[in-house]
Description:
- The protein has helices spanning about 55-60, 90, 95, 110-125, 195-200, 230-245, 260-270, 280-295, 310-320, 340-345, 370-385, 400-410, 425-435; strands at about 5-15, 20-25, 30-35, 80, 105, 135, 140-145, 150-155, 165-170, 170-175, 210-215, 250-255, 275-280, 305, 325-330, 360-365, 390, 415-420, 455.
- It is α/β, with parallel strands linked by helices and about 450 residues long.
- It has 2 domains: about 5-225 and about 400-455, Ribonuclease Z/Hydroxyacylglutathione hydrolase-like (Metallo-beta-lactamase, Chain A); about 230-390, 3-Layer(aba) Sandwich (Rossmann fold), CATH 3.40.50.
- The protein has a 6-stranded mixed beta sheet with strand order 7-8-9-10-11-18, covered by helices on one side. The protein has a 6-stranded parallel beta sheet with strand order 14-13-15-12-16-17, sandwiched between helices. A 5-stranded mixed beta sheet has the order 4-3-2-1-19, with no helix packed on it.
- It starts with 5 loop residues before the first strand and ends with a strand.
- The relative contact order is 0.15.
- Zinc ion binds near residues 85, 87, 90, 157 and 179.
- Zinc ion binds near residues 85, 90 and 157.
Amino acid sequence: MPSTDEIRIYPVGGYSEYGRNMTAVEVDDEIVIFDMGIKLDRVMIDEDLVFEDTDLLDLVGIGAIPDDSVLESKRDRVVAIVPSHGHLDHIGALPKLAHRYDCPIICTPYTARLVEAYMAKEKAHMATKDVEIIPLPTGQMRPLTRKLTLELVRMTHSILDSSMPVLHTPYGEVVYGNDFKLDNNPVIGRPPDYARLKEIGAGKGESGRGVAALIAETTRAGEDTKTESESVARAILKDHIMGLENDEDGMIVTTFSSHTERIKSIVEFGQKIGREVILLGRSMENYNLLAEEMGFADFMEDVQVWGRRRSIERALGDVMREGKEKYLICATGHQGEPDALLSRIARDETPFQLSRGDHVIFSSNVIPHPVNVANFHVLTHRLRRHSVRMIKGAHVSGHGAREDHYELLQMLRPEHILPSHGDIKAQAAYIGIAQDFGYAPEDNVHITSNGRAVTLKV
Ligand SMILES: [Zn+2]
């Protein structure tokens, strides 16, 4: 195929909606796919989700995974699938869809291990062919074809080893900005690689032409602030865990299982007040033991972790026998999910007996889906009946707000922008930011929806 000086973007999932992220980028006759995520009505993005038993077409039908039929006639042109980070709304559909493409999955090493685990679960349920998973550390270049090179730029978000993938093409770089915040003081790892982003923006990428297109998340684009650093969440937790009069009471903290930075803070402040910390829940175990194994989480050394229901019951029995005041329990269930541990504790279904004065700290926000809101309401109502002391919202977001977006645009100066990962309101808010830089809707900032490809003249 002759050179065209065109880049075609296929928004497959995650446009004008939240969840099931998937975008394909076509350059001449080659395609790279970014993300293959899930969206379920009960999207507990970071929690235990079992959907292996559900058929692919059924999942597409209910809108749980991306409808990739737009790529039907082009599957053999896909040269790589690149998940940006390990959240399920970015990797959760890989076990269902990746085998339909004859190419490897390339992502950061921690993400690769999470992907491997999901793929293995699927394989145990149905015959699916092996897909090669290639770990690519941030800061390294990997040629995909003669024309295309992939680079994963170090980024901060709310899960370890997040990246901002950059595809170097002959017509300029394509930057995939889903999901990110610009955290200058992360609790684990280093701030984003600003120097490299600026280089790429200044035309020092492989193409020498600068950024042709930025695909940008818009989750919090409408909020006039810069998202606080994870070190702010750490300070909030320090204040709550160490500042409360709590020598004799039980203490439960609940948060996103995959948020290892957050769990580090919970563990360290729990230990500082002389309590033994126990992480409870299958997903707590999965994410954080892997983090420890890969050298991200030394703090796990003196922490008990239990994932199986019976082990959890036994651990909670021990806590009751030895004295609640000796322990800090970090549990799943911050969205009020009925099956998660915190809801089971609130319903008195475990050996742990809540009593007046026990603390329950929510290091999370409620994801504003009606199901979550209802579940959360039920949970807090039940907790109140036990007269516990509750702290909600000890949390900062993993998604950049207006000022994060502003800074990214200033560094990258893309020729075209595609706002994604947000509803139409969030996409519109993003346009407002882009307009400050002189971008104009239809001209070089493109609002699109799932299945509606955009051809960029670059
Ligand atoms: Zn994410």
